[in-house]
Automatic annotation (TrEMBL):
This is HAAAP family serine/threonine permease. It catalyses: L-serine(in) + H(+)(in) = L-serine(out) + H(+)(out). Keywords: Amino-acid transport, Cell inner membrane, Cell membrane, Membrane, Symport, Transmembrane, Transmembrane helix, Transport. The chain crosses the membrane at residues 30-48, 54-72, 104-124, 144-161, 173-191, 211-234, 255-274, 302-323, 344-361, 367-386, 407-425. It comes from Pseudomonas glycinae.
Amino acid sequence: MNDQANSVEQRFEAAAPAELSSWNRHDTTWMLGLFGTAIGAGTLFLPINAGLGGFWPLVILALLAFPMTFYAHRGLTRFVLSGREGADITDVVEQHFGIKAGALITLLYFFAIFPILLIYSVGLTNTVASFLEHQLHITPPPRALLSFVLILGLLAVVRCGEQVIVKAMSLMVYPFIVALLFLAVYLIPHWNGGILTTASQVPAPSALLHTLWLAIPVMVFSFNHSPIISAFAVDQKRRYGVHADERSSQILSRAHLLMVVMVLFFVFSCVLTLSPEQLAQAKAQNLSILSYLANHFSNPTIAFAAPLIAFVAISKSFLGHYIGASEGLKGLIVKSGKRPGAKALDRIVAAFMLVVCWIVATLNPSILGMIETIGGPVIAAILFLMPMYAIRKVPAMARYRGQMSNVFVTAVGLVAISALIYSLTA
């Protein structure tokens, strides 16, 4: 595992830990990289799921968005920072909880992130197939062939390394933010206030809580960028040393503020444009909100731009989540006692990802169903509960005890996991 930690560290520019200085290009790159990892399939499906719940649940979810995402990701970052120099999340888990517990949590970490790659594989294939059929009026190739080519292309980018992925995602964020903002503004004249008709109908407390309960996992998933947090924390500790916690919190807060403002403006613009019936139709078609809008409007600019934006968003999130999924899988292989060479390990992981993502993308399961029952709740266990447990039990994190944010993060995590249990037994 030391070889794995060293390989992660070597992929970032070498520099000695520095004093905390003014904001710099390195910080901006990471801020946009975190933003880019979070904004993907979850965000593009959030207007559908949140809008179907009605006006008041959407407002409450909007108010919870920033504290829910910032405090959770800050906790996970602090957890990784609490380990020894150069240790990624799988190493830190083993360091704090022992070999057996470390192996178990590494397994959960992998299964918290890997299903997201499957979700993105399905979403990407559906987006491209819909674009070919409705905008270019071309019969899409067989789904198995289309999904294989798309996933293979993304894995080719992955071979460039983590630093290239982070920089590429940060560069892709600029046009994406502009495009998302443009679409949200473009929709303003089309607002029909359909969802506002539910504003006067305040739901009963039990119904409101039930709606929020089932929507929390989707919210957790929509703003999640935990797969890249380990690499982020390792780089911050190497660069800033004892100041890593402070600078990491600054980067996270700005990234989350950017996420929440942009995403919620887009979400509200979408749900004010489409009726609840149309949102239900989009869910039934298993399309992202952008692909549905492209088919809904006759404007050729929107018809072509929306699917392309969805393609970029899902692709860059796939790349960001691959870092975490491959990190978890490599940790599992190494902890099983097998120690193949670095190149052989990379090939094994890439081949496994390609085959499984391709099979799932070809089968085309419900994306929202996968988010609600797998993605959000399992992520919650790693992102929300594990760091809070570590704060209670690990001496290196004792200074973070007694904060109200810990109670809030724990509560959100329990809500998300209980929603999974309900979904599976209902």
